[in-house]
User: Fold this.
Amino acid sequence: MDYINYLKTEQPIAYKTFLNALSKKKVFHAYLLSGEIGTPLLEIAKFIAASLICEEPNPFACLKCNNCRRVLENNYQDLIIIDGKKDTIKKENIEYIESEFSKTSFETKGIKVYIINLVENMNEDSINALLKFLEEPAENTYALLTTENEYRILPTILSRTQIVHFNLIDPSFLIDESVKIGVKKEDAELLANFYNDSNKIKEESVNQDYIEARDIVLALLNKIDDKKELRFYIENNVCTTLNTKPNVRYLFDFLIFFFREAYSYSLEKSTIFVDYVNILGNITKNVKDLSDAILKLMDARNELNYNLNTSLLILHTLKDIFEV
Assistant:
């Protein structure tokens, strides 16, 4: 990813915020990077972390020195990353950061950075632990938090961070840019809803979790005219094939996208996602209440933050919304 170009051209306010802070060496102790789903928040957080740790910043990270390479490879000892996209952030995650950063720096740079990706996925105990940590920031210790839903963040956390907002790139432009660098148009149209960077779309288009979920969802939606066949496919293909949290997340994300776009298509009779017009038409004909179905899918996706039986979650949700 070309971080500087992305920030300069697509996120000018964020670019100027960090440029000024790094140039003047007046970096705030905690930032909250806020953007819609698809914005490369974690990647940018790591780039800012690298800029703080870089051996020769100018003022951003050079991405060539040993420190920068180790940051990008998650191999820098004074950088801790907690990813709420993978699992609910617990109190012990925050206590681990506190414990590690209470010790003398492992690295000669002497700067410690922690990144918490998707802070909205914290439980109550972890939120209280984080608040205490933010209230009493240690010297040369910086926090980079990210969120895809700022409205779910407690005001007490918002007040202790400097919020940096990121804008979404226009989907049509993003699709065109992705196709130019070798992404299939049908993949670009799908992934433009989840990633706000063409290079990230290209990388994700060959991810096995994405490919499995894409193929399952497209096959599923092409069977919704036949209730009996659809039920069989859900029970014997969807529930048995999608068995990791990443591809189950993709399943629900794709269905939410298709149902939202189908609802919009039913009203406007137009869409920029031209490769999926037939699927959108089938959804509007076969799903009675699209808005209710979208809410059920969103609830199911949120349930993935807990340790549930994903097969049962898929089975219950899909049988409900497709009435099979």
Notes: The chain has two domains: 3-165, 207-322.
